[in-house]
Amino acid sequence: MASERKATADPARSLALLWRTREPTSRSAGPALSVDRIVRVAIDIADAEGLDALTMRRVGEALGVGTMSVYTYVPGKAELVAVMIDTAYGEMPRPAVEGDWRTRLERIARDNLALYQRHPWMLRAETTRPVLGPHLMAKYDYELSAIVDIGLTDVEVDAVLTLVLGHVKSAARAASEVVDLERETGMTDGQWWQSHAPWLETFLKPGAYPTASRVGTAAGQQHGAAYGPEYAFEFGLQRVLDGISVVVAERAANR
Amino acid sequence: MASERKATADPARSLALLWRTREPTSRSAGPALSVDRIVRVAIDIADAEGLDALTMRRVGEALGVGTMSVYTYVPGKAELVAVMIDTAYGEMPRPAVEGDWRTRLERIARDNLALYQRHPWMLRAETTRPVLGPHLMAKYDYELSAIVDIGLTDVEVDAVLTLVLGHVKSAARAASEVVDLERETGMTDGQWWQSHAPWLETFLKPGAYPTASRVGTAAGQQHGAAYGPEYAFEFGLQRVLDGISVVVAERAANR
DNA sequence: GCAGGTGCCGTACGTCGTACCGGCCGCCGG
DNA sequence: CCGGCGGCCGGTACGACGTACGGCACCTGC
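YS: structure for the whole thing
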């Protein structure tokens, strides 16, 4: 496989897939498969067992179908993942916006965090170029709408959203790492640390890195391991929102 | 390969590798290989051609050595990448801190951005648990030291650093995507967009997603494609620093 | 001079994505 | 009513990948 991406030759093919341009076959008892069925199954696998468990053979198997049959509907794995991502965006809530901008933006951040918690594989899959599917468009539009009127330029509004979503993704990634480390090693975060700590001390010259040691253990103590990422998310989110407030207030004053 | 990570059984082995616990062989003309030579070559490959091009066969070849010889020094690919990461941290500058905390923190952010620009593969490799090597420790200690005295608790100081580094990584990732999209498709970001845009318009109902369209094109126009990520980095960094200022000022006032 | 160990590596296995091609079956034009 | 055709399905096979295993060559310490 090497990369998740290849020449990807044909934008038309990929986009058509994302936007489901395909007349349903006129066949009486339609085909056994469909892009939607494939995507649904693939998302289930990735949710339950991670991106690494998502192989084309596995998808075929889960559908009770030969591996290669999947390729009738999907040009390749990269494209499948792209559709999975867009589909996941599609299931996000988009309630009518309410409250002040900060409340709205905070809400958006939490919704995105929840998305990543439900579908942790997105954190590993999204490394590549955004997907440009219909649901991403809808999401982007929805989220922008919540903050277009805060008195910043369009470009700044875009940057604000990028900043917040970037923070969410970072925090989600950190949290996700803890989770799948636990799954893969069978140890909790705390146990993992305890098994590594003695070895570390062997190598560390005593008294080296005093600041790191003090702060590190302080951080470790405070939030009992699993709570760490959550704290980082909350703290960071408030800082980011504070920072945005500063510009927003500046602009309001200069008007 | 499936995952970059496996059971990883033995923490001792991995840590010993990171910290280079190994007496140099007494052999007259020392062995042809060494962990350092391997790591250096591997970093060169990853820098030049990306993580996907980094295969064990390729590393052996670049060293003029059989594939399996590499395994004499390194337990597996995951561990090799871990050492590569720690090594990269080791080459970061750590000048004496100067200026106020904001200046120092900004400096740290820019140094980290530069690191990721020099070694974009780190953005894809670091998905996994932090590496706990000596250079990461030194880096963590150095960066913390620059901000321990800003009047926040240890836990908050840690969260501040996490926030800033998280932003840097997000921005670097966005920038890196643009770069390697260009390498892989041979098109600039602008060209790519132009080749996809007409197809997109085919699918989009005219008038749908007005906000997204307006803001999206505004953002696209303003910064000529390649400049987009850079703007996002700068804007976000200032917002983050502003946000941190707010708490710092609060604490200073309450003292 | 010899035994043991260290560094090296050829071969082979299991996994992956997927190209290719051949068989199947329901529909439609004659 | 029937013959062919087009969409669907999937078996086989290829070329990557990481790496387990076992053997070979040479140096070193006795």
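YS: worth flagging: Chain A is about 65% helix and 0% strand.
IM: good catch. Also Chain A touches chain B through 79 residues (CB under 8 Å).
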